[in-house]
Description:
Layout: H1 15-23, H2 25-35, E1 56-60, E2 63-66, E3 71-74, H3 77-80, H4 89-99, H5 110-122, E4 128-132, H6 135-150, E5 154-158, H7 181-184, E6 187-190, H8 195-204, E7 208-213, H9 218-221, E8 223-224, H10 227-240, E9 243-247, H11 259-264, E10 270-273, E11 284-288, H12 290-293, E12 299-301, E13 304-306, H13 320-335, H14 338-360, E14 365-367, E15 372-376, H15 382-386, H16 392-395, H17 401-413, E16 416-417, E17 423-425, H18 432-451
Parallel strand pairs: 3-16, 5-6, 5-7, 7-9, 9-10
Antiparallel strand pairs: 1-2, 2-3, 4-11, 10-11, 12-13, 14-15, 15-17
Amino acid sequence: MAGMATQTVPLKRSNILRAYAERTPRSAALAARAQRLLPNGVTHVSRYLEPHSVYVERAAGSRKWDVDGNEYVDYFGGHGALILGHNHPLVVDAVASQIAKGSHYGASSALEVEWAEIVQQMIPSAERICFTASGTEATHLALRLARAFTGKSKIIRFAGHFHGWHDEVSFPAGGAAGISPSVVDQTLIVPANDTGRVAELLGSRDDCAAVILEPTGATFGHVPTGADVLRRLRELTARHGVLLIFDEVICGFRCSPGGAQQLYGIMPDLTTLAKILAGGHPGAAVAGRSDVLAQLQWGEEPSRIVAPRVPHQGTFNAAPISAAAGMATLRQVRDTDALDRANKSAAAIRDGMNAILRSRGVRWCVYGRFSDFHIFVGDATPEDIYAGRVPAAKLKGGTAAELLHKIRAGFLLHGVDIVGWPGGLVSAVHTAEDIARTLEAFDRTLDLLAIEGDL
Length: 455
Ligand code: PMP
C-alpha cells in the first residue's frame, strides 16, 4: 500500500464522511442552523469540517462529548490551552472562587501582580510583562514595541509560522484580501529555517525592527526548527540591533516550564505568551526586556506627566478569572511532572502510530518532539523531516484538503478528535487507555482510507 492514491473517492461520496454524518444527526441540525448565521457555519477556521463540525456539549479531563452523546478522546486541547485537560479540579476551584468575587474590577488587583510574578519567575527573559486578551493581540503589540524601540519599520517573519490573525502576520507572500498593500510592504517573508536569507536581509538593509518566529517551528513543530537556527538568529539579530521575538503562544509553558527559550538556553528580546498562560481562558502577554517594554510607560518631564510612546489599552487585559485559571495552571506546570507526563504520552502515541504504519507497509510517518504529534501524509521518516529533507511546503499544506477531512472524520468515527493539520496536542491527563483507543482509531481509519483508495 505504499505511496499515494491513484484513485480516491470524492468527498461527497466518501463512506467515511457519510458514516460520520449518520452518527451525528444533532450536530448536523445545529450546523444547518449555523449555516444561516455564521460564515462557514463555524467560529474558527480550524474547526471547519466536512460534512459538519463537531458540536460539543461537555468535556472532562482528556475527553469530550458531542450533542449526540458520542465520546471523544480530545487532542484539540482548547487549541493548545489545556495542558491539564478539561476542567482540571484546581482550575475549576480557582475560577469558581474568583467568579464569586467579581469578573472585572476596572482597577488593579493582586491577581495581576501575582500572575506576572509567576510569569517572570518561569520565563527566563521576562523582565517585564504586559497582559493582553489574546495571542493575536500579543504579537500585534510585540511588533509595535519593536518598531517603537528600534525606530525601524520592517518585520521579518517565516513562511508558515502562525502569529494570529492581525494584518501584519496573517498573509502569505504577496498579501491577502482585505490587507492593505502598505502593510504587506512592511513585511519580509523568508522561507522557514532560512537563516542565510535572514543574514542577507540584515546585511543589506538597515530598516528592520524585528525577526519573529515560533521557536519550535511553524505550528508547534509541524515544520520543525532546531536550536541551531535559533542560535544563528540570535547572533544575527544581536549583531544588527534587530529585536528577536519568540512567539511562544503554543510552546510557552509546554516544551519546558520556561518555554523554548529555557529549553534551548536562548534569550529572545520579546516573547509572546497565551493559551496555557491563562489556563483555558482568554488571556495573553508580551514579556521581555524592560527597556523595550518601557515604551509602554508614562514618562515624566519637569512639569508634566507625558503619555506613553506606545499606546496600548484593552478591556480584558489581565482579566481576574483568566488570571486565576492561569495561575492555577502555571503552578501545576512549574511544580509537578505535568509536562513530562504529556510528553511521554505523546511519544507513546507517535511510536504506536509509526508501528502501525510500518506493519501496514504505509510509508507515512508521525513525528513531534514534545506533547504533540504530526501525521505526515507522504513518503518520509521522522529522521528525514528533522534533517530538513522534506520541504516545508510538503509538511504544511502539502496534503489535499479532502484527505485531511477524511482523516479527521475517520478518527471521530472511532472516538478520537484530532486537529485537522493533521495531528494533535496531548495533555498531562491523557491515560494509557486514551492512547490505546487513539491507536485503535488510527488503525481503523487507515482501513477505511485504504477502501477509499487514499493510501
Ligand atoms: N501565535 C501562535 C504561535 C499561535 O499558535 C496562535 C494561536 N493558535 C496565535 C499566535 C494567536 O493566538 P490567539 O488565537 O489567542 O489570538
